[in-house]
# Entry
Amino acid sequence: MQFIKGSHTWGLFEDAYSFGHKDLDALEKKYRRDDRAWVEEPCILKAGQASFHHPLLFHGSGPNPSREPRLSFVVHMMAGDCGYKKNGRFHPNAVLLGPFVKDGDLFEGPLFPQIWPTEAVPQRA
# Structure
């Protein structure tokens, strides 16, 4: 995986959803600007390791040239009050809310598990 150093400070980009896009040169041509450096920093993970990074950090990996599969597990964390906006930009997670999603429906349920309690956890005796 590669990170683009400092890209999390560049703000939001129109049409920046590129999950699964393997042509990193094309992404650089699309998002690079003269007023900021495009510095690729390798993030080499061993089996079982994890990377936690800012959601606006440009990151990705190129094609897998080996004969072995490259497996990963991705978790996108969001605030508990994050919900569907009928007039907002499309995000692929919206389809996971089902065919009858309504404006304001929260991203919740079995496909959006809560990983941090919103209230104090009772202590065991």
